[in-house]
Design a protein that fits this description.
The chain is of the alpha/beta class. The protein has helices at about 5-10, 20-30, 45-55, 70-80, 90-105, 120-130, 145-150, 175-180, 195-200, 210-215, 245-250, 260-270, 275-295, 320-325, 350-365, and strands at about 35, 85-90, 110-115, 130-135, 155-160, 190-195, 220-225, 235-240, 300, 310, 330, 330-335, 340-345. It folds into two domains: about 5-45 and about 275-365, Aspartate Aminotransferase, domain 1 (Alpha-Beta Complex); about 45-275, Aspartate Aminotransferase, domain 2 (3-Layer(aba) Sandwich).
Amino acid sequence: MPTPIRPNVLRMAPYSPGKPIDEVKRELGLSHVVKLASNENPLGPSPKAVEAIQAAAQNLHLYPDAATFDLRAALSEHYGIGPEHLMVGNGSDELIHLLGLIYLSGPADAMVVGDPSFVRYDAAAYLSDSRLIKVALDATYTHDLDAMAAAITPETRLVWIANPNNPTGTVITKTGFDRFLSRIPAHVTVVLDEAYYEYAEGLDDLPNSLDYVRAGAPVIGLRTFSKAYGLAGIRLGYGFASAEIADAIHRAREPFNVNSLAQIGGIAALRDREYLGESIAANTRGRAQIEAAFREVGATPVPGYANFVLAEMGTEAKPIFEALLREGVIVRSGHVLGLPTTLRVSIGTEIENETFARALVKVMGSKVTA
């Protein structure tokens, strides 16, 4: 007899990660492969975080601090916001999942997302069997805030905005976000997902979720240690919200949801300002390399501020993606991102970026004339 799995779960597509290096080596008989597909930090983790994690490993027989007291205290000090406004999770993915659980209760509820944006927002709607309203990005691959505001209905509970957006890297402005918030009815909460915030922080007119939470606006901010802090492997995300929302997350989360090594490593990474500065500077240099590589073959990079570059190739990108694979370079094809004529390339080390640039010219040919 078939297992009665809920139909809304079966409508979900499993998350599609970038192809693993070992798999590509095995399939194509390659000895060296560069992976620029998963938006990982090419510098590796903060040395101070590694040292702290190694020291903490001797206590792995003990359960982690269920209240994440020290981590929340460090975040509170770092950002100047009370610990009652902080929530932490097993990556910001878990916080996205939990927000869906506490806000969405079934077909009577709805949520609004940009399209394309981070796919785990969709999962929050599917798992609750709530209505998912997708609003296309504008012509510049940026969230169309006017259209998103117009898409809100009396049933809408959540609006998700990734800033910078994944997979496009584009940002909305504070001016535009303030105008958008002025149109939001009282029954709607806006989640500003700032996973790539550190890479864009120096921009003029960039909204900061902290400011809105401090002001009591209906905004939740999400951030992560996976990108600029280089700790993707231990899964640690955090967020800012009203005390009421943070308390609801605390009630809904699993016990011991953030492991001991993540808590210790996060505190150490947060205090390693030198590493963070190097990480951001290397990313800025690498982004310029990748953008130049795309322009050399006649592609158009989208102006972005994350740790990847999206480029419009002017043709179906999947064959280009497959040709790059054969050259030992793993990127992301836009056909799995909802943008089939684009490629998304994570920023790697200087050598990895050069390897991509050479492979791209070999696959497409240089369009630059002397």
